[in-house]
Amino acid sequence: MADQKHPFASGDLVTKTPELTLDDLCESCGLTKELITTYVSEGIVEPQGSDKMQWRFSRIHLIKVRRASRLERDLGLNAAGVALALDLMDEIEVLNRQLLQYERHQGPDNL
């Protein structure tokens, strides 16, 4: 039997198009529906759809859920702590991009 690559394995093109079901996301991340539901309730990910059966996640959500799971496991954070940590990490990323853009505009000699 030939090896079959899961359609949402790492290395695939990352898109914002919602195409993953809750089951797909759970399988891809190795997490339970309950944990993903907790992440949704904490605002860590925001699927499209009004209920669990209709939820659709993008591959961007897949990356964020994997990151959230690592924070929870490695740092012992609860879901609310994970949400806060992810928000702060996103803000740091934005600030770093702004700083880089500023430095490019100003030049290293003008800092």
What features would you highlight for this structure?
0% strand, 111 residues, 4 helices, Multidrug-efflux Transporter Regulator, Chain: A, Domain 2, 56% helix, disordered N terminus, mainly alpha
What's the short version?
The chain is mainly alpha-helical and 111 residues long.
Shape: elongated
Write the CATH architecture name: Orthogonal Bundle
Number of domains as seen in the coordinates = 1
Strand element count: 0
Q: Please give the radius of gyration in angstroms.
A: 17 Å
**Helix amount, in percent?**
55-70%
Proportion of strand residues:
under 5%
Cα distance, first to last residue? Answer: 61 Å
Largest sheet: none
Spans of 5+ residues with little confidence (pLDDT < 50)? Answer: 1-14
CATH domain class name: Mainly Alpha
CATH topology value: Multidrug-efflux Transporter Regulator, Chain: A, Domain 2
Oligomer: single chain
The mean pLDDT is: 86
Number of helices: 4
Order of helices and strands: HHHH
What structural class should be given to the helix and strand makeup?
mainly alpha
